[in-house]
Amino acid sequence: MTQPLLLQNSDRSLLLRTVVVGAGEAGVALARDLHRVSSFGLEPVGFLDDDAAKQGRRYGGRRVLGTLADLETVLERSRVEVVVIAIPSMPSHEVRQLGLRAAALGATVLHLPPFLSALQRQIAGTDMRALQVGPLIGRPEMHVVSRHARDAIAGKRVLVTGAGGSIGSELCRQVYGFGPEQLIMLDHDESNLHRSQLELWGEALLDTENTVVADIRDSERLFQLFREYRPQIVFHAAALKHLPILERHPCEGVKSNVRGTQNLVEAAVAHDVERFVLISTDKAANPTSVLGATKRLAELVLQSQQPATTVLTAVRFGNVLGSRGSLLHVVRDQLTSGAPVTITHPDISRFFMTIEEAVGLVLEAARMSHGSATYVLDMGEPVRIVDLISNFAGLLNVRDFDVRYTGLRPGEKLTEELFGAGEEATATDHPRISMTVAPPPPAGFRAGLRELYDAAAHNRPDEVFRHLGRLVPEYRPTTNRLRVEHDH
Hints:
The protein is α/β, with parallel strands linked by helices. It folds into two domains: 12-132, NAD(P)-binding Rossmann-like Domain (Rossmann fold, 3-Layer(aba) Sandwich), CATH 3.40.50; 148-436, Rossmann fold (3-Layer(aba) Sandwich), CATH 3.40.50. It has helices at residues 25-36, 71-77, 92-103, 134-137, 148-153, 166-177, 190-201, 219-229, 243-248, 250-270, 290-304, 327-337, 355-367, 385-395, 445-457, 461-471; strands at residues 16-21, 42-48, 58-59, 62-66, 82-85, 108-111, 157-161, 182-187, 211-213, 233-236, 275-281, 311-317, 319-321, 341-343, 349-350, 352-354, 373-377, 383-384, 403-405, 426-427, 433-436. It has a nine-stranded mixed sheet, with helices on both faces. The chain has a six-stranded mixed sheet with strand order 3-4-2-1-5-6, sandwiched between helices. The longest helix is centred in the middle third of the chain and has 21 residues, at 250-270. The radius of gyration is 23 Å and the shape is globular.
């Protein structure tokens, strides 16, 4: 068995300043454990509690700073970045409202699961699985979004595509907390919209103007929506994102990731959208897969535009922990069922980020003024998948498990990159976010796009591969077939 690579974090200045809601037994125990175990990445600075008798008193060395009504004042005064709710029985609608209030000031809310209250015992910090990100990714979770992001959102009409997905729904939640004039949630899947609306408003009648069913491949439909809603800010999260699927079905990747993006950009520019933010991927840097090539093309689509007023920016994500269909969901099922954990290669590594970090990056990009730029979060060093799974097994109390190596899949890299050929990282006003201006689109780009779209529309994958190679010169497709012949 490979031993877990635990986070070493002796610098407490890197920890996120945290207030604990609830100064009861659960809250006091939680604050104690968060302080003791720095790998949680949080440093408790005090409590909030509605019990008048507890105001100003100290518990475990930390003072009760106010009541829940004082949330905004405490967050500002104590520079709080994370709010942890340690009242397991708090009703979900109150948790949701608290989350929206905290998000409006750029803070993140975490919640002890209600089922823990049924255990009838003192609750320790080790029960908070969601907080133990540091041991998995080899670094503390970063608080990315600044309070300045609120100014870019408040009072604006905001459209989020892919609103029912993991990133899209979290974007909607945080944007809603910033007080937009209107939040428009667009998705082609009505079930996803139903779930997102339920999470955000506590009911999901699907009879409001906030929820829109539409396909980004349908240009006429998008122009209709932009005329009707006149969004000022667009977050484009809709995409096909599973690498092996797109290797087998490259035409679909072009239709959604490239043509769909161009449809949205053209609608945004035509209707004087102020800011358009594309969610890209680190696989777009020196791509070896259809996913990476189509996402790089989506970035180039933004670069090829020269709008007078619309600011077009892209953000590149690493692998997002906790998103639907992500690695941890698959590994959890394998570990808990006793099945061998499948890994493609013993040395494969990836950059990882949490959903909160990913959305924070998007919101920061929305407030930055540089046009035709790509933003990248400093995600530390790549993490070996073997180490991540070993640490995850420890969190699940799985002491022993088997690993089966399956070999790299077509299009898959052994190690990802953040910047491609000809790209250089430039500092921004955010210490953990870099910016790069990628090389311009190649000559004949627009004509090449038309040929690519024609090949995709007629479902000719061989032609699609050829056009991708012409339009993205750094695209080097791999046909990994090698299987590692030993198990671990």
